[in-house]
Amino acid sequence: MFVKVCGLSTPESVRAAVESGADAIGFVLTRSPREVSPDQVRDLLTGIPAGVAAVGVFRDEAAAAAVDIARAAGLGWVQLHGDRTPGDIRAVQDAGMKVIRAITMSAGSEEFGNLGEDLLLIDAAVPGSGEAWDYASVQAKGLESRHWLLAGGLDPDNVARAAGEAGAWGVDVSSGVESSRGVKDLARIRSFVSAARLSG
Ligand SMILES: O=C(O)c1ccccc1NCC(=O)[C@H](O)[C@H](O)COP(=O)(O)O
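Above are the sequence and the LARABZUK SMILES. Below is the predicted complex in structure-token form.
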């Protein structure tokens, strides 16, 4: 099970995620209570092993702008929320970065298609809201052969059941490992990664 912990903003939370075995860590570089600057991200990445995917999260920024900001932050991955085209995905990949394309469960069937992204993320209606949804309903979307992440309302107590119901390849969390909006809880980060790992 691939595990991503998102919305990190302190060295302690980055260390907790990496030391507990997260495959990917995410930094919100768009308007949000979790927003960090490219300079902050550069500092937070100091000493992070090369095998950990470091992801910049963007909502409606143009792909080219996301690439510029991610490059300034020293990131190798870009997560794009909002309406995206195959050209957007290619623009990021041509810049030497990998792409997570984020959609919501209510997206149209064409958005569930493969636009060339490295990973697809299927989220709640409002990203980063901690809102749960009917995870089993994604089984109808024909994603069995795809590399995709389940997100939205996951936490250490429900991640194993949710990933099983959805048949998820990987999981992503932010709100469920916080003590209050934007404040990560280190023990919950460790519990989440360990529960997700045990589930598959
Ligand atoms: O976290 C935010 O505030 C945010 C703002 C704008 C776009 C994306 C954002 N977050 C994305 C994520 O953190 C995850 O991909 C995912 O949505 C986490 O959801 P949850 O665990 O329900 O907080």
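The helical segments are 11-19, 38-44, 63-73, 86-94, 109-112, 159-166, 186-198.
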